[in-house]
Design a protein that fits this description.
The complex is a heterodimer. By secondary structure, chain A is mainly alpha-helical. Chain A has one domain (10-314): ABC transporter involved in vitamin B12 uptake, BtuC (Orthogonal Bundle). Chain A is 74% helix and 0% strand. By secondary structure, chain B is an alpha/beta fold. Chain B folds into three domains: 1-32; 35-139 and 279-325, Rossmann fold; 141-277, Rossmann fold (3-Layer(aba) Sandwich). In chain B, 49% of the residues lie in helices and 20% in strands. Chain B has helices at residues 2-31, 47-63, 78-90, 107-115, 141-155, 176-192, 208-221, 233-245, 261-268, 280-297, 319-325; strands at residues 36-43, 66-72, 95-98, 120-123, 133-139, 164-170, 196-203, 227-230, 253-257, 274-277, 305-308, 311-314. In chain B, the strands form two sheets. Chain B has a six-stranded parallel beta sheet, with helices on both faces. Chain B has a six-stranded mixed beta sheet with strand order 7-6-8-9-10-12, with helices on both faces. In chain B, helix 2 packs parallel to helix 10 and helix 5 packs across helix 6. In chain B, 50% of the residues are buried. The chains are: A mainly alpha, B alpha/beta. The A-B interface holds A 30, 32, 35, 37-38, 41, 44-45, 48, 140, 143-144, 146-153, 159-160, 162-163, 235, 238-241, 243-248, 286-287, 290-291, 293, 296-297 and B 43-47, 50, 73-74, 173, 200, 202-203, 205-209, 212-214, 216-221, 233-234, 237-238, 240-241, 244-247, 260-262, 265, 329-330.
Chain lengths: 322, 330
């Protein structure tokens, strides 16, 4: 009984198990599922979700929430698309154009992150309300600037970067894995992570211990914005255009990934590996249901069950503590 | 505190004065026989309505009337449209072009307009009871679906006795345009091309990236897939990116809907096989023309129900027709 308890206390183990069961189930239903191209599809869906979710992990761990990540994805992709379109018309080098686009996307993310940070630390708004405001503003700007349609006519090479060449991985995917790993290290091995845990567990105690809570929170929201900006660029590369609807309800995907990964919305609890697995589970479900031919609307139901299951296991761990 | 309330009072007074002036000018405009046409559409952000706006503005200028163009920025819903329609009617326009987002919920708006002596034309969609509506002008979605089926059969080189696989990308299971297009498509397939099987359907929720995921998985799941019918612009975006990334350009036929400039370009490069284009600008032009005629003479030559035909753009379409049917976007 004790050993079962021990195993159930390990969220990572349960997540890996859940993922393995899913892969086995989908593969039995349709053997096509167990193939490099399908894993490629899953990873290309996973990349933007995990970028949003990693930033969201820091935010949630600090006891806050960032609802603006999905809209940031949309606006950064659109802004990058506008710049890349003019650069392409001007006959600029394609790789250079894509690089500039990436920085523009990150810059837009950075700006939205700064606005969030200002609203939360200076205007003293609660994170839920502050980021709800930027969610609406960013999505509105997407529509105002584009008139609703996607912005294309950028570098033709962009889509070719979304083609997997290293097994199921493409170049942006590999870069994203490295970024996620670095963010994970900072979360668990550096001051940035330790302070985040401290603020999330008890921000008063953190302040008395000499942590500059406001500055630290600002850093976290900016990080979340920049990572979402990168996700916006990733979607541009996938589609070859910046769509104003990109990343719509991405915030819910990100929060779901973090919660499935075992983090607590009240802050101070969670691990980056959980978020990585959580987002992988979400995107595996999406592809799996299409491959085995289940009506797409079931996706929402399955995700809901997963969230409930993850939170239940958290509760189970808490009960067995004593 | 007193100062703020004084300020507030001044503001209120100013606003009231503004409203009064606006009201007076509206009445004056009407008295001076200056015709004002109000155009209440679905969602400003949709390129379909953007193209319609271009047509409406051109016709308003040509007919020498003032145009009030209104609608929700992004949400296609009666909940947001009704208050906008009420505001517009309060300005007392000479005529109203209404694109009802719901056939039942917007009926009352038509009644209100009728009571105020404002003639109404419906475009694209219509209210249930058309008695008080001068004319209903629309594109034909079922016909568009059937034309897409023809374009698909041609693109995959359909031969009698062969067997072909086609998948359909939709926006949602309930949007009326999607339903009508799919129905037209399925019926034409069943009747004329029995060898084509619709192997799968998926929804994009108006997001190209979701459509992209759907198509990526189809291309893996159905290695023999012959074609994809993308029922709206977002599905065409997602599908064209997937086909390019998987190197299947020219191998998997892609028939799309709506002639967004970006997608028309993809016909030239061979990624999209054909696009079913509606003619939103023509719908808007006819609507305004009809209303102006009706306001001036009390009758109109326009039929009670006008269907503007769809047009299929493919690689063999003449440059002039491509230019004519491509949606103008700002």
């Amino acid at each position: 009984m004790n050993r079962i308890r021990e195993v159930l206390k390990n969220q990572q183990f349960i997540l890996v198990l859940a993922l393995a069961v899913m892969v086995a189930f989908f593969s039995i239903k349709n053997p096509v599922f167990f193939s490099i191209p399908v894993f490629g599809n899953i990873l290309s869906d996973w990349a933007p979700v995990v970028l949003m979710a990693v930033g969201e992990t820091y935010v949630i761990m600090s006891g806050g929430i960032d609802l603006s990540v999905g809209s940031t994805v949309g606006l950064s992709g659109v802004a990058a698309a506008f710049v890349m379109r003019s650069m392409t018309t001007a006959g600029q080098n394609q790789n250079f154009t894509i690089l500039v686009g990436t920085f523009i996307a990150m810059g837009v993310g950075l700006l939205i992150g700064l606005v969030n940070a200002f609203l939360i630390t200076k205007a003293r708004m609660v994170p839920f309300v502050a980021t709800l405001a930027t969610l609406g503003a960013a999505r509105g700007l997407c529509i105002v600037t584009t008139g609703g349609g996607p912005i294309g006519e950028g570098p033709e090479k962009a889509i070719s970067y979304s083609v997997p060449w290293f097994g199921p991985l493409n170049t942006p995917g590999i870069i994203i894995i490295v970024i996620v790993a670095i963010c994970g290290l900072f979360m668990h091995k550096a001051k940035l992570g330790r302070y985040t845990y401290a603020i999330g567990s008890n921000s008063f105690a953190a302040r008395s211990a000499g942590i500059n809570v406001k500055l630290h929170l600002a850093k976290i929201y900016v990080l979340s914005g920049v990572l979402s900006g990168l996700a916006g660029m990733y979607l541009y590369i996938r589609l070859g255009s910046g769509s104003p609807s990109s990343g719509a309800s991405g915030e819910l995907m990100a929060i779901a990934a973090v919660v499935i990964g075992g983090a607590s919305l009240s802050g101070g609890v969670g691990r980056m590996s959980g978020t990585v697995l959580g987002s992988l589970i979400l995107t595996t479900v999406t592809s799996g249901l299409i491959i085995i031919g289940v009506a797409p609307n079931w996706n929402q139901v399955v995700v809901a069950v997963l969230i409930a299951g993850a939170v239940f296991i958290q509760g189970f761990r808490t009960w067995t503590k004593d | 505190m007193i100062r703020t309330s004084k300020k507030a009072a001044a503001l209120v007074a100013l606003a009231a004065a503004g409203a009064l002036v606006a009201g007076v000018t509206a009445t004056a405009a009407r008295a001076a026989d200056k015709i004002t046409i109000a155009f209440v559409m679905g969602a400003e952000s949709d390129p379909f309505f953007q193209a319609m706006k271009v047509g409406a503005e051109a016709q308003a200028k040509a007919s020498g009337v003032t145009l009030i163009w209104q609608g929700d920025p992004s949400v296609y819903s009666p909940a947001t449209q009704i208050p906008i329609a009420d505001q517009v009617l309060a300005q007392n326009p000479s005529g109203l072009v209404l694109i009802p987002t719901d056939p039942v919920a917007l009926q009352n708006t038509v009644t209100k307009a009728k009571t105020a002596g404002i003639p109404v034309v419906n475009v694209d969609t219509h209210v249930n009871d058309l008695t008080d509506v001068v004319s209903f002008i629309t594109g034909d979605n079922a016909d568009g679906g059937a034309k897409a089926a023809d374009a698909m059969a041609k693109a995959i080189g359909y031969k009698k006795g062969g067997s072909y696989q086609v998948a359909v990308g939709l926006t949602s299971a309930t949007a009326t345009t999607n339903v009508a297009r799919l129905e037209g498509f399925s019926k034409a397939i069943a009747k004329k091309y029995p060898g084509i099987k619709i192997v799968d359907k998926a929804y994009s929720s108006s997001q190209p990236s979701v459509a992209n995921t759907n198509v990526n998985n189809w291309l893996t799941k159905f290695p023999k897939l012959n074609g994809i019918f993308a029922i709206d612009g977002t599905n065409a975006d997602g599908a064209s990116a997937a086909i390019q990334a998987k190197g299947l350009k020219g191998k998997v036929a892609l028939v799309g809907y709506d002639a967004y400039a970006k997608n028309v370009k993809l016909i030239k490069s061979g990624v999209i096989t054909a696009l079913v284009a509606q003619d939103p600008a023509a719908e808007a032009k006819l609507a305004i023309k009809t209303l102006v005629e009706y306001i001036k003479t009390g009758k109109t030559a326009t039929a009670k129900n006008v269907v503007i035909p769809n047009f299929v753009i493919s690689a063999s379409t003449s440059a002039a027709d491509v230019a004519k049917y491509t949606y103008v976007q700002k």
